Amino acid sequence: MSKKHLTVNPHIFTFYHIFSKVFFLLVFPFLQQIFLNPESIWQRITYTILNTLLIVFVGIVICLEYKQISYIQHTDHIVCKKGFFHHNEIFLPIREITVISVTSSIILWLVHCNRVYVSSSTCFRVRRAELFTGNTAARKIINYTTGLVQKKPVYKSRLLAPFFMSLTQSNTLTGTLALSVILNRLSILLGERASNLVADSLSFFQNLLAGIVPPTLAYVAGIIFAGFLFGLINQIISNANFTCLYSKKHLYVYKGVLKKSILCVNRALVNGVLIKQSLLMCIAGLYTLSVLYTGIKEDKNSGVYIPLTFGNRLNRYVRTIVPVEEPCNVIRPRKEAVKSYLYAPLIFLLITAVVFLRLSESFSTSFISRFTAVVLIPFGVLWLWFRLLAHKHCGIAYGNKSIRVNYYSRLNLMSAVIYKSSVTKAEIRQNPWQQIFKKCHLILYVCDKKKITIKVKHLPLKNTVDFVESFIASRTLEP
Amino acid sequence: MEYKEYKMANRAVLLYRLRIAAVAVITAFACGVIMAFSFLISAAVTAVSFTVLIIIFFVYPFMLYKRYSIKINGNSLCITKGVVFYRKYFAEISDINYASTVTTPFQKVFGIFSLYLYTKSGQLVVANISKIPPPLEVFIYE
């Protein structure tokens, strides 16, 4: 029988969390009280008593649910209990814990509370423990699970790093800025045109459109711009004070100012590292590194462990997680496959040119030509350059223990260095066009909380089939 | 590598034809709805869709059957499928955590079922088989 080590009580915020789940039950009495039109005073009293009873029942349910939550840590396992009606007890051996994630949003920070996830994956379905608790208890959970060991620093961000990190991390984020500017300009242009239409008084429908579309576009542009600003601020407060440490068995990531989070990953159960370069990062020569681990979807902790770094330090950081080896088998797209990489941006540039010529007849030419010259054509050229980079970048190589896959996804260059044992499924896919030209896409499935798929495009079919077969055979020979 | 090959059940062709017939019935209703607005468009849609459906009815299930194969050697599994989009899945048998079988009402009529194999990073589907391939029998407890 193992000794009881630590007992953690749920934080008072848990009441609110349970209440948010049963909140819908209160909608009915609330609406009934508002719209009630009783015929007599007795009817009003009866309904009021019934509604009060329902509210009391909901209150009792919340208290009972709260009472049932417990987290007990023994020397070799964790017992986490929850649920009154649907009782759930989780027994999690400490040696199988993959990740401990502690997150706190601004609201949780105000009430000195943290959301703790302890998860492990022994099968397709993930076993996990989840609770709300105070700062001291959250740190105790980490310390008791990992032990009080000496931690060595891997990375500590400087003052300006969170800002550049947020600005370059996502194409979606920077894309919203461009979209808001485009929509705003479009609303002004349509407004000018609409004023002429109203003056002509063509029809009621056209007048209605002219009155609705331009201001709506302007509002949407404003909302998108506000979204960009909020996204940027959110990223900055989530990534400030980024610090990464490691011990013999674990990797620790501390980050955030108001939205603090701690990630503690078991190095023995990590699947690999994902290196990402967005379009802006490609220009600046920067990289982001994330840990691939089997966790739970609900956990908002991103798994980023080196937010911004230059290429010369990359191998040092990757080596902390996965062995970097000399490849014994390599496959790359052929030189002729470069055409397949360039089709999309070339078609985009062609369509831009055609639309420019067509629209310049009906709108003021100066704006269209300026917009095309400043935004669309440079974007098309950047996209073309990115695809050329992607063609040079793509490829797969494996060594004795790990496999390195270079690929691209949307406007991001990605590299995954994974343990061979973490790749449990491979797929070769051919569309009708590729069936004619004997090319294919290779997709590798990795165990990860986001169930990521690694897709290398436009590889030669025969070489890919041989490569996958030899890879599977080499995995079988693995000790 | 020496593989032992398994095919999908012959009756699966009938199942696919039944599904195509169901699509044909729905298309007929859709054409009827379009006819309420325009006879010409409806006639054109009917002519095109039913020609396509008849070709698919006779060609597609047969090609699907021909392309589909499950190759198993001692350690690994390779599933090949697809007519328009050709796909090949590779997995190691030791990576399979557990398995389940699913029988839909139509499959029940033809005495076939699908075998789902779960690995850490997703699932593999061995569709429309009448008998579990012997190397995969270890995952099913009768």
Task: Specify Rg of chain A, calculated over alpha carbons.
Answer: 28 Å
Strands of chain B, total number: 7
Biggest sheet character of chain B: 4 strands, antiparallel
Largest inter-chain contact set: A-B, 28 and 23 residues
Question: Judging from the principal axes of the Cα atoms, what is the shape of chain B?
Answer: elongated
Spatial strand arrangement across the major sheet of chain A: 7-6-5-11-10-9-8
Percent of residues in β-strands of chain B: 25-35%
List keywords for this structure.
heterodimer; A: 479 residues; alpha+beta; 14 helices; 48% helix; B: 142 residues; 2 domains; four-stranded antiparallel sheet; three-stranded antiparallel sheet; 3 helices; elongated
Note down, in words, how this protein is organized.
The complex is a heterodimer of chains A (479) and B (142). By secondary structure, chain A is an alpha+beta fold. Among the domains of chain A are: 162-239; 336-391. Chain A is built from 14 helices and 21 strands. In chain A, the strands form four sheets. In chain A, strands 7-6-5-11-10-9-8 form a seven-stranded antiparallel β-sheet. Chain A has a seven-stranded antiparallel β-sheet with strand order 14-13-12-18-17-16-15. A four-stranded antiparallel β-sheet of chain A has the order 1-2-3-4. Helix content of chain B is 42%, strand content 28%. Chain B contains three helices and seven strands, in the order βααββββαββ. Chain B has helices spanning 11-35, 39-67, 105-110, and strands at 4-6, 69-72, 76-81, 86-92, 98-102, 113-119, 122-129. In chain B, the strands form two sheets. In chain B, strands 1-2-3-4 form a four-stranded antiparallel β-sheet. A three-stranded antiparallel β-sheet of chain B has the order 5-6-7, with no helix packed on it. In chain B, helix 1 runs antiparallel to helix 2. The longest helix of chain B has 29 residues, at 39-67. The mean pLDDT of chain B is 90. The chains are: A alpha+beta (479), B alpha+beta (142).
